[in-house]
Amino acid sequence: MRHQSAYRFPYRQKGATLVIALLILVLIMMIGITAVSTSNTQYKLAGNLQFEDGAMNNAETAVSTAENWLVTGTNYNNAGFTTYNATASPQLLPIGTNNPLNMTWSNSNSLSLGDDTQRYLIQQLSTNNLLMGSSAVVGRQGISVCDKVNTYLITGRGTTHRGATKLVQSYYSVLSCPIS
Fold it and tell me: In this structure, are strands 111-112 and 118-130 parallel, antiparallel, or unpaired?
């Protein structure tokens, strides 16, 4: 009589569990690699946005500096706005000169603020324009008022040391008659 045991012989096992376990491990590994790759890309994107923000801040600072320069004293009436002089005032341009959006920015056509990450130029657009709705007679009983302005296009260029560049433009007007 033969003795039968509950033990199954190895030749009857198929190994499906091993194959399924290996497939699941490969799938998990692929998900991990994708997660690392996505994280790395997002890290680079965040860095690039930070550099672009720095360039924008530099451009806005340059525009603000130019606006402050225009409004101080009689700078709005500088001779550089009528006769371009790259040596005396490279940042001041007469009506209809350079297009700041496609020019090469240098010391001969713009003013640098410090380390060359902030530059600006000012183009005069018009002189002695009458302010709309202004009159020395309306509401003013014989008082002399200034009702004329010069208009300017200020372009600021900001860069970062990593290569990001941003341009900001501002239309600015300054009263053009002496106030006593």
Answer: antiparallel
Instruction: Give the pLDDT confidence of 116-173 residue by residue, as tens digits.
Output: 899 999 998 888 888 776 555 555 444 457 788 889 999 999 999 888 899 999 999 8
Q: Helix or strand or coil: residue 98?
A: coil
The DSSP string of 103-140 is: SPP-TTTSEE-SSSSEEEEEEEEEEEEEPTT--SSTT-
Helix and strand counts by DSSP (H, E) for the chain: 1, 5
Dihedral of alpha carbons 31, 33, 36, 37, sign: negative
Q: What is the DSSP letter of 158?
A: E
Kindly tell me if the per-residue pLDDT of 28 is higher than 70: yes
Residue closest to 120 by CA, chosen among 164, 71, 158:
158
* Domain boundaries defined on the chain: 21-175
For the stretch 98-112, pLDDT in tens is 777 788 888 888 888
Residue 160 is encoded by which pair of tokens? 């970062």
Rounded to 10 degrees, what is the CA torsion of 76, 81, 87, 90?
80
